[in-house]
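Deliverable D2.4 — example input (structure tokens):
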């Protein structure tokens, strides 16, 4: 099955989800409610895009990408198709803007090469319509035209085009731009497929914010103060802020600063006394900056340098003399794409967070806490487990109503969370049951924590507005020293908890040999 035609395949999603759980234990030392132990998604991000792209590309049979060539001239179209096929691209052709839109929706190309001057619907209108449709908005569009006019380039870029190539098309430039755009699309496709899958799981993302470039931050590496002033003035028209640095080492330090969030890097060529391509190489080599767009500012005679930069991962370029409108249009496109990618990543973060979080209490859910415990035990860690059950919860729920019962569970969860160690994981195990996993806890410490939790719940009533209810819990504890099996450990704690209930409730009982035999 083609990954691109459907959703992110379940087998891949579950594998990535398992990877997420496997890495979760590295964050268990952080407090669950105050310092999300799963915030370290960046540690596995570098694995995800490549995996997702392989899934999306599984049926490609050696083709590097799909390219849709749109030109009303059959000879021009066939010539361009032949060039692409020689480089092992999979190619389809369309003779009009309307045909291109239909074919793009049905065939899902990776890139569209779009002629500007066509009868009926011209390339500008076709591009606008492609970018306005959800199914095709993510496909890069390169306009190919005989109009070598800056005004026309700006018009195309404003319509949503990613670049402009002038006929006759230089082959080296064509393939450099295609590969640069494909690299960006590969990453976006991976995140987009994941976003679609988690939506299918029922996790609806927040609505997209209105397009606004206000506050976007652009970092400029340049020795030319006059040019920097010109660039800053142009970008300020869109509400963007430009920071100029002339030292590459200082630029790299700024990019490594976790508090500095840049939307785009501009690299002004040439670099007196330095290697103009080193920054592009370093950006793509580091996980933290791999997806940060890089735009070059160059002279026309620096063509070979620009092409080499595209091979190293540059995203776009603008030639001197700089046309401010073209610069702004290209920068807007890069910032727009960057923010779209960050939004997809945030959706994925949120979906993973929701998938391991109990919706009522905000605690971790049963699925997560069991996997977390299994992971600790595999590593040979000593663990204490507490099974906690709210006493006489059903009569409370029946008399005061489900809303009051839910409020009581939320308050119990809040008190449990407040009185465990920073390294402990508290989860809602099911109904009115909670499970606490304590890494490294011994007999004495497990007993002390269990008693502290019992007192935190039972010593003060829960205010439900309509009444203040005395609520107590029964707790069973078990230690991993007896068994390294998660299911048996939980079962022993559960048996001890039921014994606490049978002995009068509102008490703590440690698992006995009999409890372990029952487990």
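Example output (designed residues):
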């Amino acid at each position: 099955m083609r990954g691109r035609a459907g959703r992110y395949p379940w087998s891949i999603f579950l594998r990535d989800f398992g990877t997420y759980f496997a890495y979760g234990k590295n964050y268990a030392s952080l407090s669950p409610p105050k310092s999300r132990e799963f915030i370290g998604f960046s540690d596995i991000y570098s694995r995800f895009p490549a995996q997702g792209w392989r899934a999306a590309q599984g049926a490609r049979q050696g083709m590097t990408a799909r390219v849709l060539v749109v030109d009303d001239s059959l000879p021009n179209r066939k010539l361009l198709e032949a060039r692409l096929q020689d480089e092992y691209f999979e190619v389809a052709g369309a003779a009009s803007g309307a045909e291109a839109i239909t074919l793009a929706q049905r065939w899902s190309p990776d890139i569209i090469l779009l002629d500007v001057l066509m009868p009926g619907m011209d390339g500008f209108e076709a591009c606008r319509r492609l970018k306005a449709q959800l199914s095709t908005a993510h496909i890069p569009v390169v306009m190919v035209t005989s109009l070598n006019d800056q005004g026309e380039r700006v018009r195309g870029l404003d319509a949503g085009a990613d670049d402009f190539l002038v006929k006759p098309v230089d082959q080296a430039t064509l393939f450099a731009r295609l590969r640069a755009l494909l690299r960006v699309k590969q990453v976006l496709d991976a995140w987009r497929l994941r976003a679609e899958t988690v939506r299918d799981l029922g996790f609806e993302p927040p609505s997209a914010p209105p397009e606004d470039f206000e506050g976007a931050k652009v970092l400029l590496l340049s020795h030319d103060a006059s040019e920097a002033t010109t660039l800053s003035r142009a970008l300020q028209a869109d509400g963007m802020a430009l920071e100029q640095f002339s030292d590459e080492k200082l630029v790299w330090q700024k990019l490594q600063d976790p508090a500095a969030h840049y939307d785009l890097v501009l690299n002004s060529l040439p670099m007196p006394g330095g290697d103009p391509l080193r920054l592009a190489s370093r950006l793509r080599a580091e996980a933290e900056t791999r997806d940060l767009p890089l735009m070059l500012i160059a002279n026309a005679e620096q063509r070979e340098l620009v092409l080499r930069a595209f091979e190293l991962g540059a995203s776009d370029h603008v030639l001197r003399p700089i046309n401010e409108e073209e610069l702004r249009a290209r920068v807007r496109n890069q910032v727009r794409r960057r923010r779209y990618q960050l939004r997809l990543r945030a959706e994925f973060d949120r979906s993973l967070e929701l998938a391991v979080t109990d919706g009522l209490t905000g605690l971790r859910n049963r699925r997560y806490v069991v996997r977390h415990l299994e992971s600790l035990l595999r590593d040979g860690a000593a663990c204490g487990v507490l099974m906690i059950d709210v006493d006489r919860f059903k009569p409370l729920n029946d008399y005061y109503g489900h809303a009051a019962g839910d409020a009581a569970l939320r308050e119990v969860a809040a008190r449990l969370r407040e009185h465990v160690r920073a390294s402990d994981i508290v989860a809602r195990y099911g109904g009115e049951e909670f499970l606490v996993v304590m890494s490294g806890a011994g007999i004495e410490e497990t007993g002390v924590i269990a008693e502290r939790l019992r007192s935190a719940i039972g010593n003060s009533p829960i205010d439900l507005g309509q009444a203040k209810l005395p609520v107590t819990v029964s707790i069973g504890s078990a230690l991993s020293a007896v068994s390294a099996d998660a299911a048996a450990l939980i079962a022993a704690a559960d048996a001890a908890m039921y014994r606490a209930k049978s002995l009068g409730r509102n008490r703590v009982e440690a698992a006995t040999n009999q409890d372990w035999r029952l487990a």
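Confidence is low (pLDDT under 50) at residues 1-63.
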